[in-house]
């Protein structure tokens, strides 16, 4: 009755594996964003800076999107596209701020990174390493 529940070690191993895959995915996304930033012509792009931009963009973008969705809740059908647009602008702003570049270069780097990441996801799903969501 007291002590660890059954399967405790298994669940700890699963949580560790999920954390490991999250970190691997974050590193790959950082590599892709750094590569796309170099491709666009951003001189001081690095993998660490790209990882910071990804985490910061996701956190700040989520906060801003939530605030916009709540503020425009009275426009029920339109508040989600506005929240998505606010998320996108915040995310690109974070990339712009981290890499000290222009809005256009940051947006193009983000677009290239998204295209490359979708291609990588499809390739990994084709060989069976990743299962894509049925809505994609």
Q: Can you describe this structure in just a few lines?
A:
This protein is an all-alpha fold and 136 residues long.
Total count of helical runs of at least 4 residues: 4
Provide the gyration radius in Å. Answer: 18 Å
Would you list the SSEs in sequence order as H and E?
A: HHHH
Q: Alpha-carbon distance between the termini?
A: 45 Å
Using brief descriptors, characterize the structure shown.
136 residues; 4 helices; 0% strand; mainly alpha; globular
What would you note in describing this structure?
The chain has 136 residues and is mostly helical. The chain has helices spanning 8-40, 47-71, 76-99, 103-126. Helix 1 packs across helix 2 (47-71) and helix 1 packs across helix 4 (103-126). The relative contact order is 0.11. The mean pLDDT is 86.
Write the layout of secondary structure elements.
Elements: H1 8-40, H2 47-71, H3 76-99, H4 103-126
């Amino acid at each position: 009755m007291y002590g660890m529940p059954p399967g405790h070690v298994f669940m700890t191993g699963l949580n560790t594996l999920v954390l490991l895959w999250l970190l691997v995915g974050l590193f790959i996304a950082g590599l892709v964003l750094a590569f796309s930033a170099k491709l666009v012509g951003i001189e001081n792009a690095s993998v660490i800076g790209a990882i910071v931009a990804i985490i910061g963009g996701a956190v700040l973008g989520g906060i801003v999107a939530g605030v916009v969705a709540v503020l425009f809740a009275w426009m029920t059908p339109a508040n989600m596209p506005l929240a998505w647009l606010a998320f996108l602008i915040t995310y690109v702003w974070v990339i712009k701020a981290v890499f000290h570049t222009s809005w256009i270069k940051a947006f193009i780097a983000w677009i290239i990174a998204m295209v490359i990441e979708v291609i990588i996801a499809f390739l990994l799903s084709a060989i069976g390493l990743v299962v894509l969501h049925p809505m994609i």
